């Protein structure tokens, strides 16, 4: 018992969290969802009331409370399963900016003081407390891992076949309606009041059933993610097999079904979009991180699970117009403004997220991968021009081959022209780009003059 009295609950709750090499962001476990983030947060020892760690970032997830300091490259975390209660100071004469956490077990029973306090210097205490209490009620960490479920009774198996043991559901039978029978109870003012009471009771019952269905749907969220990951694996293996076979089977019915499933995965969108409420003053930084994971096919978006990197599919560069449309589509109702997207894109390079914002002299703004090479694009355009029947390229040809917009295709052609790989021919029929053969002709002419001399 004496050993328990000398044990500090603060040190028992907050454990060191190793950071990945070269990263200042704590890793999350599988099925762990970010819920809230605040900066300028300090950790306080509940017994001594002493600030132990100052001015860090607190990240509240569905499973843990994570505190990390980017300047010190250190992170601590405490699991919510050890928290018995979260509340604020009850002193109405002295407003507090701290959230008090009380732990479960014998260590907390020996002392009525909180094990730890979390101090918010720039606000956000009430939102944090509300989220913690909600997570303690949901207790996601106690839920079993998602099982392999079918999207519907007619869902395909991993090998593409339809399960024989589960026949397709038949259309629902038409609902039979019964005409109301007139009685004297429905007449007069009393009848009107009874009808209103019946309608009100029906509305209450409908609302209760609707919220019950919503809670059931939310409880199955992790199972849905598991289904998406399973089908994403199937699609990836199919894409690999079709690539090895040369794509001869891509035009069949299975290719069309896979395309429909790809569209379904894209429409699933981002499961936990970053908002100003959840990220606070770190909104644009967290938005930039989520944008980077979305463009590189990371695990943040359910739609990204079934596809390759959007950025790499488009040659390592995308216009801000395309990024704005695709990102907002994935975010659903949590739309962002063009100004917020621009601020997030400007933060991509300082945060070292593998991409950056670039502006061409023509005014076109793009998101560009850090490993993007203009030389490779120029060489590819020259090869495309040489492969064409007439030996020339247009901006439409480049946009079709590289899957980019016309504006970006024109920028690519202008860059290749500046490199001396292509030359343009402007006429009333439009602008054509040809492989630049003038250097070779000049070299041949020089060799001929040398031999003649």
TrEMBL record:
Keywords: Coiled coil, Cytoplasm, Endosome, Protein transport, Transport
Biological process according to GO: protein transport to vacuole involved in ubiquitin-dependent protein catabolic process via the multivesicular body sorting pathway
Any GO molecular function: ubiquitin binding
Top-rank lineage group of the source organism: Eukaryota
Location of the GLUE N-terminal domain: 18-148
Functional description taken from the UniProt entry: Component of the ESCRT-II complex (endosomal sorting complex required for transport II), which is required for multivesicular body (MVB) formation and sorting of endosomal cargo proteins into MVBs.
Entry annotated with the keyword Protein transport: yes
Predominant subcellular localization, coarse grouping: cytoplasm
UniProt-listed PROSITE patterns: GLUE
Self-association and partners: Component of the endosomal sorting complex required for transport II (ESCRT-II).
One GO CC term, this protein: ESCRT II complex
Presence of keyword Hydrolase: no
Protein name, entry field: Vacuolar protein-sorting-associated protein 36
A Pfam family hit: EAP30
């Amino acid at each position: 018992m004496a050993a328990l009295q000398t044990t500090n609950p603060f040190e028992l709750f907050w454990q060191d969290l190793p950071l990945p090499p070269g990263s200042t962001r704590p890793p999350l476990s599988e099925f762990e969802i970010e819920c809230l983030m605040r900066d300028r947060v300090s950790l306080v020892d509940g017994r001594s009331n002493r600030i132990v760690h100052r001015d860090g970032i607190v990240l509240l997830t569905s499973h843990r409370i994570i505190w990390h300091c980017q300047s010190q490259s250190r992170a601590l975390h405490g699991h919510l399963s050890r928290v018995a209660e979260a509340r604020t100071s009850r002193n109405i004469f002295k407003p507090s900016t701290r959230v008090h956490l009380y732990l479960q077990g014998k260590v907390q029973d020996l002392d009525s003081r909180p094990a730890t306090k979390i101090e918010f210097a720039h606000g956000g205490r009430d939102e944090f407390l509300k989220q913690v209490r909600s997570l303690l009620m949901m207790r996601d960490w106690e839920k079993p891992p998602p099982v392999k479920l079918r999207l519907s009774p007619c869902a395909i198996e991993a090998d593409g076949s339809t399960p024989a043991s589960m026949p397709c559901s038949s259309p629902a039978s038409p609902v039979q309606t019964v005409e109301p029978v007139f009685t004297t109870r429905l007449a007069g003012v009393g009848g009107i009041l009874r009808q209103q009471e019946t309608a009100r009771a029906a509305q209450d019952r409908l609302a209760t059933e609707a919220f019950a269905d919503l809670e059931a749907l939310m409880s199955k969220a992790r199972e849905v993610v598991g289904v998406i990951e399973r089908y994403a694996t199937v699609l990836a293996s199919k894409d690999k097999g079709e690539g090895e076979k040369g794509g001869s089977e891509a035009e069949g019915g299975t290719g069309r079904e896979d395309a429909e499933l790809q569209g379904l995965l894209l429409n699933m969108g981002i499961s936990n979009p970053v908002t100003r409420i959840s990220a606070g003053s770190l909104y644009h930084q967290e938005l930039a991180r989520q944008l980077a994971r979305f463009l590189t096919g990371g695990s943040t978006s359910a739609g990204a699970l079934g596809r390759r990197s959007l950025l790499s599919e488009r040659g390592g560069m995308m216009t801000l117009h395309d990024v704005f449309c695709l990102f907002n589509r994935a975010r659903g109702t949590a739309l962002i403004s063009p100004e917020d997207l621009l601020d997030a894109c400007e933060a991509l390079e300082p945060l070292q997220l593998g991409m950056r914002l670039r502006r061409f002299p023509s005014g076109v703004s793009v998101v560009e991968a850090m490993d993007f090479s203009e030389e490779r694009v120029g060489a590819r355009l020259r090869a495309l021009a040489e492969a064409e029947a007439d030996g020339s390229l247009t901006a439409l040809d480049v946009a079709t081959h590289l899957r980019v917009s016309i504006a970006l295709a024109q920028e690519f052609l202008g860059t290749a022209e500046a490199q001396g790989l292509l030359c343009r021919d402007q006429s009333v029929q439009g602008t054509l780009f040809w492989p630049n053969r003038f250097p070779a002709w000049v070299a041949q002419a020089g060799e001929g003059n040398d031999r003649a001399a």
